[in-house]
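Section 5: illustrative case.
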C-alpha cells in the first residue's frame, strides 16, 4: 500500500504556533490515520517555547474532505468544530434556497458553471454569501492556549517533585461534559461536547430586542458598518420592512440611524434582523434608537410648563406649586395676611364681589 507523500501538512494558524521559524520532523509512513487507518507522512513539531509537541493525526485526503486541520480537526476557515459548521451551513442553505422555479434554475446553472471551471476556487459550502451564524461564532485570532502542555499526572497524584522545572501543567484536570472528547466524533460532527457547548452559548446570547415603551420611537441604530457603506446600501436592506422616513449614515463612527414611517415597520425589521444583520459582507449590530438630548430636554421643559386652572396656556407654574394644585391652595402674597379686595384674593375664583369690604 503506497503512502501519500507531501511537502507540508495542512494546519491551522493556532496549531502552527506563533514562531515563524518552526522546525518540523518529517516521518514517512509514521502512523496510521485516525479516520481511514491508512499510513501517511507524519509531522512533529513544537509550536512555541512553552507549548507541547504536536503531530498530525489525519491524512491529507481526510483533512481535505472536511476542510479541517490535520492536528486539531477544526475548520480551517472559521476555526470551529465540524458539527457547528455543518449545522450553521445547513440552516444557511435552507434559508438561502430560492422559492421560485426561475431562481432555482439560475442557482443550479451558476453552481454547474463553477464546477466546470478549472480555475474556480471550490469552498466547502455551496453559497458565496457567508452564514451569519458562522460569522458570529468564528474565531478571528489564533488561540495559542490550546497548545499548552498536558497536565502532569504525578501532580494529580501529589507525587511530583520537579516544581517549576516540570514541563507539564500543575493543575487539576477539568471535569464535566468537555472531559470526554475523541477525534472521530469531532471529525464526523456527532456527539461533540465542544460543539454542543458552543451552540448552547450561541442560543443563550441571542436575546430578542425589546421595543421601547415610548411609541414615538421609530428609529433603529445600525453599528459595525464598513467604511464604504452608503445610504443606498442601508436603504436596500431595510426597504422591504416598511417605508423609511430618513436614513442617516455616520461614517466617522461606522453606524447609521434608520427611521421608519410607522412603528410597526421598525418592530418588524428589529424582530427579523436581530439574529444577524449583514450589509456589504460586514456583520452589523442592531439596536433601538434613543431620543436625542435636545428632544428629551424639550419634552421635559414642556412637561414643566403644564397648565393649571386659572393660568393662561403656556405660562409656567409658580415655584413650589404642582400642576395638581388649585387656585384655592395658592398662598397670599408675602407680607399680606388678609386680602382687602377681590382682585387681591388669590383664593377668590371669578369676579365675585365681597360685600363685607364695602365702604360705609
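Designed sequence:
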Amino acid at each position: 500500500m503506497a503512502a501519500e507523500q507531501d511537502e507540508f501538512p495542512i494546519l491551522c494558524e493556532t496549531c502552527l504556533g506563533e514562531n515563524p521559524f518552526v522546525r518540523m520532523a518529517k516521518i514517512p509512513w509514521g502512523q496510521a490515520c485516525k479516520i481511514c487507518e491508512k499510513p501517511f507522512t507524519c509531522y512533529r513539531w513544537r509550536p512555541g517555547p512553552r507549548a507541547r509537541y504536536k503531530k498530525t493525526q489525519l491524512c491529507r485526503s481526510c483533512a481535505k474532505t472536511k476542510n479541517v486541520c490535520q492536528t486539531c480537526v477544526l475548520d480551517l476557515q472559521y476555526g470551529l468544530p465540524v458539527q457547528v459548521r455543518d449545522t450553521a451551513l445547513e440552516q444557511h442553505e435552507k434559508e438561502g434556497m430560492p422559492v421560485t422555479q426561475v431562481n432555482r434554475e439560475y442557482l443550479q446553472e451558476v453552481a454547474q458553471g463553477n464546477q466546470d471551471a478549472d480555475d474556480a476556487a471550490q469552498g466547502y459550502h455551496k453559497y458565496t454569501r457567508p452564514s451569519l451564524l458562522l460569522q458570529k461564532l468564528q474565531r478571528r485570532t489564533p488561540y495559542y492556549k490550546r497548545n499548552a502542555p498536558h497536565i502532569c499526572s504525578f501532580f494529580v497524584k501529589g507525587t511530583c517533585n520537579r516544581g517549576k522545572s516540570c514541563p507539564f501543567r500543575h493543575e487539576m484536570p477539568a471535569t464535566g461534559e468537555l472531559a470526554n472528547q475523541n477525534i472521530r466524533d469531532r471529525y464526523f460532527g456527532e456527539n461533540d461536547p465542544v460543539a454542543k457547548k458552543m451552540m448552547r452559548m450561541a442560543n443563550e446570547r441571542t436575546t430578542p430586542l425589546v421595543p421601547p415603551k415610548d411609541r414615538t420611537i421609530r428609529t433603529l441604530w445600525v453599528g459595525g458598518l464598513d467604511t464604504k457603506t452608503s445610504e443606498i446600501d442601508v436603504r436596500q436592506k431595510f426597504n422591504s420592512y416598511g417605508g423609511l422616513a430618513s436614513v442617516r449614515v455616520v461614517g466617522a463612527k461606522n453606524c447609521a440611524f434608520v427611521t421608519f414611517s410607522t412603528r410597526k415597520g421598525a418592530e418588524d425589521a428589529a424582530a427579523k434582523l436581530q439574529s444577524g444583520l449583514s450589509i456589504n459582507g460586514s456583520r452589523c449590530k442592531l439596536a433601538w434608537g434613543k431620543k436625542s438630548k435636545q428632544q428629551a430636554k424639550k419634552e421635559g421643559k414642556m412637561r414643566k410648563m403644564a397648565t393649571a386652572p386659572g393660568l393662561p396656556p403656556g405660562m409656567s407654574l409658580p415655584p413650589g406649586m404642582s400642576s395638581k394644585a388649585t387656585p384655592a391652595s395658592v398662598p397670599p402674597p408675602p407680607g399680606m395676611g388678609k386680602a382687602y379686595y377681590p382682585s387681591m384674593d388669590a383664593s377668590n375664583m371669578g369676579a365675585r364681589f365681597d360685600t363685607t369690604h364695602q365702604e360705609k
